[in-house]
Amino acid sequence: MKNIRQGEPDKKAKAFIWRTAIGLQAVDGLNTSDYLKETARRHIEGDINIDEVRALIKSYYQSKTEREPDDDEKQEADKVSANITKILSSETLDFSTRGYIALHRRIFEGVFSPVYLERFFRNLLLGDGWDLRNRYLHIHPTAEWQEQPYLAAPTSTRTSTRASTRTSTRISSPVNALNPDSKLYTSNGNVIELVRVVGYEEMSIKQMMEIKGLKHRQTFIDYHLEPSLKERFIRRKNPDRPNHPRQKYLLTVKGQALYQEIKKGETI
C-alpha cells in the first residue's frame, strides 16, 4: 500500500483545493451555488472547518423554502465539492484498491447510491452499457432521474434504479445499427436512444430533454443532438434558421429507417 502524507493545508493550499473541487463539477456540466462559494471563502479564511462547511450545506438545502429549477444539480455539486475538499485536505491518501473504493464512497457520501461501483464494473468487465453520469446515481433521485438509462448492446435488460414491481422491458439494439457495413450504422448509443425518442414526431429540444429525463441543455446538445444531426439521423425542421425560436427536430429518411429497425428489435 502506498500512502502520501500531507500537512494541514494553509490558506493558499485550501484555496487551490477548493478551485480543484469546484472545477471537477464543471467538467460534469454542474455549477456550484453562490452559497457554497461564500461558505468556501469562510473555510479558506479559517472561520470554519470543513466539517462545519458540510453541515452548513446540508442545512442550507434542507431549510430552503423557495426552490429553483437547478437546485438539485447545485446541491449535488456543492456536496461533492465539499467532500472532495475534505479528502484533499486530509493527512493521508491511500492508493490501494481498497483505498480507491473508500475514496469513491467518501466523495459521493450523502449524494449517490453504492450501485455506481457495481454498474461501473459491469460496464468494464461484462460490456454492459449503464449511463453512469452523476444525475442517475442519487440516493433520493428526482422523478425524471429515477430510471437510469441503459444504452448498450443487444439483448440487454433495461432496469430501473428504484425498487419496482413493474416488469422490465427487454430491448435489443437494431442489428443494422451495430453492423459497420450498414448505411444505418452508428456506434453512438445516445443517437440510437434519441431516434427512439423522436420516432415519427416533431419535437423541440425541451420536449426531447423531458422525455429523456435530462436537465442540462448544453450537455444534451453536445452529446445527444449534435451527433444525431452530424450522422444525419435527425434534421431541423427549419434548416435555414438553426436558432428559430420554435425550432423542431424530426427524423430524416435514414433516421426513420433506423427507427423501424429499433421497433422491430424491441420485445416486451
Descriptive report:
With 268 residues, the chain is mostly helical. The protein has 3 domains: 3-107, no CATH class; 115-171, no CATH class; 175-267, Arc Repressor Mutant, subunit A, CATH 1.10.10.10. Helix content is 49%, strand content 7%. The protein has helices spanning 11-27, 34-44, 50-63, 71-88, 97-107, 115-126, 175-178, 189-198, 205-212, 217-230, 253-265, and strands spanning 3-5, 92-94, 156-158, 169-171, 234-236, 249-251, 266-267. Helix 8 crosses helix 10. The longest helix is centred in the N-terminal third of the chain and has 18 residues, at 71-88. The model is unreliable at 1-7 and 150-172 (pLDDT under 50).
